[in-house]
Amino acid sequence: MSFERTLVFLKPDALKRRLMGEIISRFEKRGFFVAGMKMICITEDFARRHYAAHRDRDFYEPLVRYMTGGPSLAMVLEGKNAVRVVRDMMGETFGVDSKPGTIRGDYALSNRYNLLHGSDSVQAAREEIQRFFRPDELVPYTQEDIQWNYDISGKGVV
């Protein structure tokens, strides 16, 4: 059975608003496995490297200040179609544009403070996971764990 891994990190506003448990719970209830998790304080240098693609955008400097303004929680989620499903669960980038039932739709109205980040592709997930986690910080799951979230009773069934 092939699963994807994706990086999610809860940004400083999620932690300052005490939404960490609620957000993690949503991912777990959906069936994702938490393969790794740690609290981090993102440094200015790290934020600049992570968001380098946005360097020429008007929101880059405020984004760097926002991301270095408090602790974040980084985690690796594992499951079927993890990248796409996690991004669907997150909602649109801007909370005001997100539908109720999504994380941002339920908890965010700001364009700048949008609670969390999720990898936008399988390739980006690989790169981001390596940026945030060493291999020995990630936990594998067994068939016994998986059977409670997926039907693994027959060939091609997942």
Poorly predicted regions: none
Strand content: 15-25%
Radius of gyration: 16 Å
Q: What is the CATH superfamily? A: Nucleoside diphosphate kinase-like domain
Number of strands: 4
Give the N-to-C terminal Cα separation: 8 Å
State the name of the first-level CATH class.
Alpha Beta
CATH topology: Alpha-Beta Plaits
Total domain modules: 1
**Coarse structural class:** alpha+beta
Overall mean confidence score, pLDDT: 92
- Tell me which CATH architecture applies here: 2-Layer Sandwich
Helix content: 25-40%
Largest sheet composition = 4 strands, antiparallel
In DSSP terms (H or I, runs of 4 or more residues), the helix count works out at 8
What string gives the helices and strands in order? EHHEHHEHHEHH
- Form type: globular
Physical arrangement of strands within the biggest beta sheet: 2-3-1-4
Detailed description of the structure:
38% of the residues lie in helices and 16% in strands. The chain has 158 residues and is of the alpha+beta class. The chain has a four-stranded antiparallel sheet with strand order 2-3-1-4. It is globular and about 50 Å long. 28% of the residues are buried. The mean pLDDT is 92.
What are the salient characteristics of this protein?
158 residues; alpha+beta; Alpha-Beta Plaits; four-stranded antiparallel beta sheet; 8 helices; globular
Q: Can you summarize this structure?
A:
It contains eight helices and four strands.
Please give the structural blueprint.
Layout: E1 4-10, H1 12-16, H2 20-30, E2 33-40, H3 44-50, H4 60-67, E3 72-79, H5 82-90, H6 103-107, E4 116-118, H7 122-132, H8 143-146
Antiparallel strand pairs: 1-3, 1-4, 2-3
